[in-house]
């Protein structure tokens, strides 16, 4: 448990330094005095632990202070407020919208008053949707550099600073100088994602195609606005935005499937392989990697039957992430990932044990097995939702009355979305007719997800505005959750579990297969071309475009 205390002290040091801003010399003196105290009291276990925690706290504060930006003539942000010409390379995927796009550009050099200067730094460029710019393009950009704004209830400046961006450019003049200046690995990866997205569009109708692209590829810009609003109103958008919550859910369902097919020992490798492949497929961006690390550590610890190990692993993961970027704790994705995973660690095992003992006493055979699967899905959803709720209320100031119902209905379907949709996309890249067969199967959970979200979001009382939910109330909420967990009894003791926490799925394949086959036949007819010529006129921002679809599709 020493690692748990040291990790918490490190995080506390980062948090304290964020508003105390202690000078580095003061941290050095405090670290030196704590080191002396540690040596003098080494033989006393409690005193040794206290001094180690103090050292960890001061190191965390020092790491934060070192990461604070310092602008000089060699940094791009130093020239904010000036009209300049700069050269830079597009890094990361362009954030595509209907009429505009956001490009993350790494500056290489900058011309001020007729002279070129070598600079470093990232700039977020807002420009028109066309012409297309892609990863690795070397651009010459002319415009006025701006500092990100701060609003009354949201600091866009701080939000971008956590990503290392301190400069904005709006609709500048852009000239393409060269292509292929980025990493060959990411160039290949983004090209594969482009092909995969085109394959998904060919295999599925809308809005299911856009939804699957968001879940599998992390490309959610084509999801209709009304559907996005429905996801937000029901607090189910986590299934689209890759976070620790849905990585944990994916890992859990992969463990279910792996245990049934491969057995308990090999299911670990199956689940971890699935997480790695999924992470690479959605682009391996830092938030996704962070969520994958948390999910992987959780799966490993649960497989070993050591809940205490799972909690320590979570804190160690947070330590590693903040070591690389001490601003990570203020990232909303990190907060949701951490909270959801913590809820799964603390609540799920004991609740699962209670559920199994209750259903085993009923001896209802197959019905009991089905209720176990349904109950465990609800338990996982409830545990994660309880722990992310204070964060959601504090940031979005809206409480969804249908969140638990919506999540309980759609979360169990997400394993089918990801597995069937992923395999269908892979097969479609190779031979489209093969992918089409599985795409029909993937359409079922996708259509179910869209139906549930839209139906529950449409209820007048689905969500209520709470006006405000202060940080103090959020902290109090977590205090209540921790107190509830302590009173009801912690579920981890460091001992190996007698039973694996992941239960096998019941044998209900026959009925499910018949239902799926019937629906797939209907879907095959539904997706056939209607035999008519369709002509659509599209507004692309800088002119018009015409899309023609032949009678054969």
Descriptive tags:
8-stranded mixed beta sheet, 59% helix, 553 residues, two-stranded antiparallel sheet, 3 domains, 12 strands, OB fold (Dihydrolipoamide Acetyltransferase, E2P)
How are the secondary structure elements laid out?
Blueprint (H helix, E strand, L loop, with lengths): L1 H19 L3 H17 L4 H23 L15 E8 L4 E2 L3 E13 L2 E4 L3 E7 L9 E7 L11 H6 L3 E6 L2 E6 L5 H20 L4 H10 L7 H9 L10 H19 L1 H18 L4 H18 L3 H18 L7 H29 L5 H31 L1 E3 L2 H8 L3 H17 L1 H26 L5 E3 L5 H18 L20 H18 L7 E6 L4 E6 L4
Parallel strand pairs: 5-7
Antiparallel strand pairs: 1-3, 1-6, 2-3, 3-4, 3-5, 6-8, 9-10, 11-12
What would you note in describing this structure?
The protein is of the alpha+beta class. It starts with a helix and ends with a strand. Helices cover 59% and strands 13% of the residues. Strand 11 and strand 12 form a beta hairpin. It is built from 18 helices and twelve strands. About 7% of the residues have low confidence. The strands form three sheets. Strands 1, 2, 3, 4, 5, 6, 7 and 8 form an eight-stranded mixed β-sheet that branches. The longest helix has 31 residues. It folds into three domains: 66 residues, no CATH class; 107 residues, OB fold (Dihydrolipoamide Acetyltransferase, E2P) (Beta Barrel), CATH 2.40.50; 314 residues, no CATH class. Helix 1 crosses helix 3, helix 10 packs antiparallel against helix 11 and helix 14 packs antiparallel against helix 16.
**End-to-end C-alpha gap:** 62 Å
Mean pLDDT: 79
Write the H/E string, N to C.
HHHEEEEEEHEEHHHHHHHHHEHHHEHHEE
Low-confidence stretches: 491-528
Percent range of helical residues: 55-70%
Tell the overall outline: globular
Tally of helical segments: 18
Q: If you compute it from the alpha carbons, what radius of gyration comes out, rounded to the nearest whole angstrom?
A: 26 Å
């Amino acid at each position: 448990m020493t690692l748990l205390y040291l990790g918490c002290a490190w995080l506390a040091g980062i948090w304290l330094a964020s508003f105390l801003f202690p000078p580095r010399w003061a941290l050095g003196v405090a670290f030196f005095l704590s080191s002396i105290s540690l040596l003098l009291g080494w033989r006393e276990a409690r005193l040794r632990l206290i001094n180690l925690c103090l050292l960890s706290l001061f190191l965390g504060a020092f790491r934060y202070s070192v990461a604070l930006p310092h602008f000089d003539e060699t940094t791009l942000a130093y020239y904010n407020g000036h009209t300049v010409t700069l050269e830079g390379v597009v890094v990361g995927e362009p954030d595509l919208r209907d009429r505009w796009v956001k490009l993350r550009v790494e500056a290489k050099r900058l011309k001020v008053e007729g002279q070129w200067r070598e600079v470093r730094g990232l700039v977020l460029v807002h420009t028109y949707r066309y012409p297309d710019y892609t990863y690795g393009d070397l651009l010459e950009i002319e415009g006025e550099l701006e500092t990100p704004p701060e609003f009354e209830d949201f600091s866009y400046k701080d939000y971008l600073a956590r990503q290392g961006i301190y400069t904005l450019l709006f609709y500048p003049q852009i000239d393409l100088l060269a292509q292929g200046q980025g990493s060959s690995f990411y160039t290949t990866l983004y090209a594969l994602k482009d092909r995969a997205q085109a394959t998904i569009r060919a295999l599925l109708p809308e809005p299911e195609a856009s939804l699957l692209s968001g879940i599998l590829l992390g490309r959610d810009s084509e999801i209709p606005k009304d559907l996005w609003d429905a996801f937000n109103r029901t607090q189910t958008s986590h299934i689209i935005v890759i976070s620790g919550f849905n990585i944990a859910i994916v890992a859990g369902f992969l463990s279910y499937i792996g245990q049934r097919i491969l057995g308990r020992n090999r299911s670990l490798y199956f689940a971890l392989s699935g997480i790695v492949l999924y992470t690479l497929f959605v682009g391996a961006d830092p938030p996704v990697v962070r969520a994958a690390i948390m999910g992987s550590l959780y799966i490993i610890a649960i497989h070993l039957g050591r809940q205490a190990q799972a909690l320590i692993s979570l804190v160690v993961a947070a330590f590693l992430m903040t070591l690389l970027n001490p601003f990570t704790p203020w990232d909303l994705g990190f907060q949701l990932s951490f909270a959801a995973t913590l809820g799964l660690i603390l609540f799920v095992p004991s609740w699962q044990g209670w559920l199994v003992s209750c259903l085993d006493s009923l001896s209802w055979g197959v019905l009991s097995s089905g209720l176990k699967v349904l109950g465990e899905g609800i338990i996982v959803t409830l545990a994660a939702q309880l722990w992310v709720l204070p964060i959601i209320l504090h940031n979005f100031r809206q409480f969804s009355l249908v969140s638990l119902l919506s999540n309980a209905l759609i979360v169990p379907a997400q394993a089918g979305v990801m597995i069937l949709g992923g395999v269908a996309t892979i097969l479609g890249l190779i031979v489209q007719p093969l992918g089409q067969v599985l795409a029909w199967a993937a359409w079922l959970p996708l259509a179910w997800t869209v139906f549930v979200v839209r139906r529950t979001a449409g209820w007048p009382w689905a969500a209520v505005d709470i006006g405000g939910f202060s940080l103090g109330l959020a902290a109090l909420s977590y205090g209540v959750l921790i107190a509830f967990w302590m009173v009801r009894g912690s579920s981890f003791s460091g001992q190996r579990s007698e039973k694996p926490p992941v239960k096998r799925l019941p044998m209900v394949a026959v009925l499910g297969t018949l239902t799926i086959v019937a629906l797939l036949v209907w879907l095959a007819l539904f997706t056939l071309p209607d035999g008519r010529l369709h002509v659509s006129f599209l507004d692309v921002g800088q002119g018009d475009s015409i899309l023609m679809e032949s009678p054969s599709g």
